[in-house]
Design a protein that fits this description.
By secondary structure, this protein is an alpha+beta fold. It contains 15 helices and 16 strands. The two termini are about 25 Å apart.
Length: about 475
């Protein structure tokens, strides 16, 4: 890997739906909350009342889908029912999960009390996540939950497992694998975990002894702007620009580099069928490379200005805003937020190595003064392949000297997500155009299956909800290594 002597550290935030059998929760309650009982029968109206995610998530997370507990709202984040007879979970599921980790290697804290030092692992709830319905539980944990009767003894809750600051080493990835194995469980376990469609894996990258130099961050910004489309190809469609998540969690870093209005230019286009090249009209929405370089590498650039150029806030594919943290506010890290939720060790490893490889490449380009200039003429070029018609993530692999095994792994992800995107598009094309057609299909397809909290699942495929990212979607199955 290029520039592999650069000392870097990283941390991961692993969002998930944690699932557990009633006996595990009851054992914790018996030990710590004398007299508290589990409430399973909660009507839809009450579930909407109990649901208090951040405002931007209300449309896609409309209901509280977990069990309740009798008693008052004494726990952090717990919400009282309207009749005052029960409340939502506080930190109880976090403590159930904590008991499962080897050596109890994490501590528990509420989402509202953010950690600022990451010297050990920790478990926290995540108010942007919810549990899932019983159909989804059956589908996700087929090896543990056979049917709806069995599912009624299981519950789910959205949590986040956050690592300590880790060096980039085999030992760190072994440590991650050990905790993932514990939280995932086995077919005989009374617990399990999986990422829903709303989950993400966030990777923080920092320097163990100092802040990143501004030139390194400028070159990283330029890499991210030029290769955003190619990097996005490594992710499923629901983690790309234009998706629901892009509106609130992972907006493009390119927004400040768009043309307004877009313009039409003549471009050379290669036709793979006829193997000919022709000049065709193409809409161009991005500024030219010369214009982008002039902005990013301006002589009067400051860290604060660069952070604003790259979005200025947390909810972007790459979050630069934490670089402005003052001492005592938390680590001054780059946060790579685009990856979907993931509880599979190899996927965590190769994505961590890829994003840290981008930082290494950016630092290398800064050190060799990769911008080509001429006396008095300003910026005229760059020392690596820039935009062209056939540019690919492979260009990044080459520049990073990325390991062959990692190229194959991430390349397989690109291929799988490309096919999945085509299947999803075809499914959207088959979606009824009117409410009347949708109602007709509901009448024809209704299997009368209970939706897991009191209603009938009209027109709803067994085991599918908007959180579902199962392995059997539209007939497309990922390679075995990519199924978690």
């Amino acid at each position: 890997m290029i520039n592999d002597t650069l000392p870097l550290s990283f941390g991961v935030e692993l969002e998930m739906v944690f699932t557990f059998h009633e006996t595990l929760l009851q054992a914790y309650l018996n030990k710590n909350n004398n007299g508290v009982t589990i409430v399973k029968d909660i009507n839809a109206s009450e579930r909407r009342h109990l649901n208090r995610p951040p405002t931007q998530y209300l449309l896609t997370r409309p209901e509280y889908l977990s069990w309740g507990l009798t008693g008052t709202a004494e726990h952090p984040g717990a919400i009282q029912s309207r009749n005052g007879q029960f409340r939502t979970y506080g930190d109880e599921p976090l403590h159930v999960a904590h008991q499962l980790l080897p050596g109890k290697t994490a501590y528990v804290h509420d989402d509202r009390k953010k950690a600022i030092r990451f010297v050990e692992w920790h478990l926290t709830n995540d108010r942007s996540l919810t549990g899932v319905d019983k159909d989804t539980l059956i589908q996700k944990l087929r090896d543990r939950i056979a049917d709806i009767k069995a599912a009624n003894d299981w519950d789910s809750y959205g949590i986040e497992l956050v690592s300590r600051v880790l060096p980039i080493s085999d030992e760190s990835f072994t440590e991650i694998n050990t905790l993932l194995a514990a939280i995932n469980g086995t077919p005989t376990s009374h617990h399990g975990a999986f990422p829903s469609r709303h989950c993400g894996m966030h990777v923080h990258v920092g320097h163990p002894t100092q802040r990143f130099p501004l030139p390194t961050l400028q070159h990283l910004a330029y890499l991210l702007i030029t290769y955003e489309t190619q990097i996005s190809a490594m992710h499923p469609s629901h983690r790309r620009e234009g998706s629901e998540a892009a509106n609130v969690d992972i907006a493009s870093n390119r927004d400040n580099f768009l043309l307004d209005p877009a313009r039409i230019v003549k471009k050379l286009v290669f036709d793979p069928v006829t193997r000919t090249v022709s000049r065709k009209n193409r809409w161009v929405t991005m500024q030219s490379l010369t214009e982008i370089r002039a902005v990013i590498f301006a002589k009067d650039m400051t860290l604060a200005r660069l952070v604003n150029l790259m979005g200025g806030s947390k909810g972007h594919m790459v979050n630069f805003s934490y670089l402005l943290r003052k001492p005592g506010w938390g680590p001054a890290t780059l946060e790579f937020r685009q990856h979907e939720g993931c509880l599979y060790g190899p996927s965590v490893k190769w994505w961590v190595l890829f994003v840290t490889g981008l930082v290494r490449l950016a630092d290398h380009l800064a050190n060799i003064n990769a911008i080509h200039t001429t006396t008095g003429a300003g910026l005229v070029g760059y020392a690596f392949n820039e935009w062209h018609e056939n540019m690919s993530f492979v260009d990044l692999f080459e520049m990073m000297d990325f390991p062959r095994e990692g190229r194959e792994y991430l390349g397989a992800q690109v291929a799988f997500h490309a096919v999945s995107s085509v299947v999803e598009e075809r499914e959207r094309e088959r979606t009824p155009d009117s409410e009347e057609e949708a109602e007709e299909e509901d009448d024809d397809d209704d299997d009368g299956h209970d939706d897991g909290h009191g209603g009938k699942g009209k027109g709803k495929k067994r085991g599918r909800d908007d959180d579902d990212d199962d392995d059997d979607d539209g007939g497309v199955r990922p390679p075995p290594a990519l199924r978690r």
